[in-house]
acetate--CoA ligase (Halolactibacillus halophilus), 545 residues
Amino acid sequence: MALLAQPGTYNLTDYEQTYQSFNFTDYQHAHKKEAVNVAYFAVDQHVKSGLGAKIALHYVNGEEVVSYTFREVKQQVDQLVHVLREREIQVGERVYIFLPKNPTNYFAILAAIKIGAIAVPLFEGFMTDALHERINDSYGKVLITTKNFASRIDFQAVPSVTEVLYEEDLHNLTVEDDYVYWATPETPFLMHYTSGSTGQPKGVIHAHRAYLHHQLSGHWVLDLKPDDIYWCTSHPGWVTGSVYGLFAPWLNAATIVVQAGRFDAKQWYRVIDRLKVTVLYSAPTAFRLLKAAGDVYQSFQLDSLRHVLSVGEPLNPEVITWAKKYLHVRIHDTWWMTETGGHIVVNLPSEVIKPGSMGRPFPGITVKILDDDGNEVPHGTIGQLAVKAPWPGLMQTIWKNKAKFDGYFNDAGYYLSGDLCYQDEDGYIFFSGRVDDMINARGERIGPFEVESALVKHPAVKEAGVIGKPDEVSGEIVKAYITLNDHFVETEDLIDEIKVFVKHQLSFHSAPKEITVLDELPKTQISGKILRRELKQREQLVKLS
Ligand code: WTA
């Protein structure tokens, strides 16, 4: 059943009319600036315009809350700017930020951007191989991390890194450097590594022009107003955590909440209650876990919450119904990707929500559902979600892989997402799956190739095929099929050892949760490539039997 909007004042009140009248080309033209810097727009500009004393960030670490005003954020960023400038970092240099979800992470990302470098935030869960792989792809020289996190890196194996800045040494800085590198809209500022179905993760490069998309979607979709306390639960190592955890809210001068640690239902409700969070952006797995936690919510006052959004994986209608009934909020699904750099399909607070639907195209953006030949399919028919290029948030390129970048677009200039969807008569879009083998566990993208490569490094593993297996809580879990080398026998201990081995190489989230040993893996006859599709079918057959 459709859920109507609550009466209220929203930043965008009439979707149809705005969709008809708004276009990004005019908007970009009206906001055209030759010299731009996302970091400057996100912080310094607010200090200049009189918002210096406004709280920019609440950091929750267990019982402790530390708050920073925009002026204090600027000071912190400018101190790191000084440190980076002393290291003579060049424009376009890749600066790795490998830190927990804490304020330094946000400040370091901005400092790198402010001096014209490319910030490369890395997920806090990454382990040795995942880190080496990414660093050796983009060959940056500066790494900002903690002593603890640095122990996961073998510095011999990442020869480009010549400057390691430890967070522990960055706390008592006193010198600030109020330097801004004035970039052009096309200057790169951010790179996120992301996984597909083939090959190792690739570096998706975003340019400063994306700030227009971030700002406008923060205004329309997050519906941010001056008094909002906004909490995005994602780590800045993922695109949601940077674009909607940092850039979009701060470009709109909102107060953000940063919470240390991963999911815990009680802790999360407590953060909302304590800080009077008004806008929350999270992922379906987290909402499912909140639902599973039952009446825990009853011990907390949650009525500050006025707008709740979701992204990253299919949002089940049951979760929407539950949130409406018990938390008295509608959950607004949004669809976008690392490559799109900002919202593409959205549910706006002023509009009807159809549970199960990701929403309708963001104003200024043309979306089509295409068949294999690139023709638009009728309403209700499944096809590939495609987006007419360009738009301000669209990635600028793939790091050192122009061919890969070009491969995303069809001849008609549409970006092909790899997601299968259908659209109803009202324009609402429903997700149905992927065209490829990409895995999505708890909203986090996992490339099967990266996991397979890690598996075959274990001495017992001969070959590996990795798939996503449907799971009630996580959406999908990582499931590996392997064959063993001679003289190895399948035992529970060996299987556990292999799981831990991958966890220590890549990360907790991409390690297989299940492993099945087979005598042989299904392969293509000619090239001998492992057929993940058959493994997936096998999984379904096992489930039925
Ligand atoms: C999936 C995250 C269903 C999709 C911002 C996409 C979704 C991939 C949704 C991008 C949604 C994202 N419903 N699936 N609302 N949003 N996805 O790059 O398969 O980490 O291609 O960006 O997540 O993941 P990424």
